[in-house]
Amino acid sequence: MDTEQIRHSLTELGGTFAQELAQAGSRQALEQLRVKYLGRKSPLSVHLKRLGSLPAEERALLGKDLNILKVSFENRLAEAQQRFSERPAQPPVDVTLPGAPPPMGRLHPVTQTMQEIVACFVPMGFEVVEGPELDNEFNNFDALNIPRDHPSRENFDTFFIDPASGGAGAPRPDPKLGRPLLRSHTSPVQIRVMRSRKPPLRILVPGRVYRPDPLDASHSFMFHQVEGLMVDDRANFADLKGVLGLFIERLFGPSTKTRFRPHFFPFTEPSAEVDIACAGCGGRGCTTCGRKGWLEILGCGMVHPNVFKAVGYDPRKVQGFAFGLGVERIAMLKHGIRDIRLFFENDLRFLEQF
Ligand code: DAH
Predict the structure, then answer these.
(1) Fewer CB in a 10 Å sphere around the end CB: N or C, the chain?
(2) Residue-number span of the structural domain to which 166 is assigned
């Protein structure tokens, strides 16, 4: 055969290979094709062996063509082989089966808990109000009767905003309002609302707060609170106990035991912390309650006269009470969650349980 004839036979070879490959219906059939078209006795191998006896110029040209064909056979065989290994015989599709349900979203457990808390107070006439997360020293501290030397005003206890780092739109320190900061509690919204409205007031403030705490099982640099405030001319400590008692009954069940424990907050006087009997041990003491039998759930008290003065109310004419609670803490107590970090890791295995 001269090179012209060889070339012609290669074209035919390509054609029959394609036909036979299309008809090959099993791995064995493919293996037979491989032997036939690439094996030692295949026309391709025979031609390749004969290359040596050709003049150099022709050898180069024909060698190239032979190789292209060889590689093409190899690739197409490998492809076909993969089709057999990837697709085991599939059962026929039953088109009458219902489709796979699309994944449904849901509210985050913190949002759910916040909504449950709010729902307990709304029937008692509390109106939901929100305030900005970026606030100032006056609203977060001064107006709440928190003195200049209070430890929570240290740089490592509050995120003060450095105006230099914020560009042109950054908030500036103000002679009256002090330095801008990320609010460390929702209490500054009490100040905002009282400064812009007259009593009677009955407000509930859900929101996000920030403290530069290192993350651990019970601390996070960001968490959520719900604040409450009621002001009129006679709201008293008995009202406070009534409102919070009803709240606890609604959230934790009617037989939940509570206690009011004297405490100190600068913005209320007198102040108290409210505990509920530990559900884990029924008050006997266990690891959940640190062997105390009681779990602290919120802080509260009668609004301090200095707070009323700071917002321009006359403390001789108005009185009222306030309270504040941590939403994650309540959610952890309700669901037996032991690590606050779970709320913020966005692990669906956790979130889908709620
Ligand atoms: N602001 C307090 C805190 O973050 C919680 C608090 C306690 C709010 C007593 C109140 C209150 O309104 O009366 O720890």
Answers:
(1) N
(2) 109-351
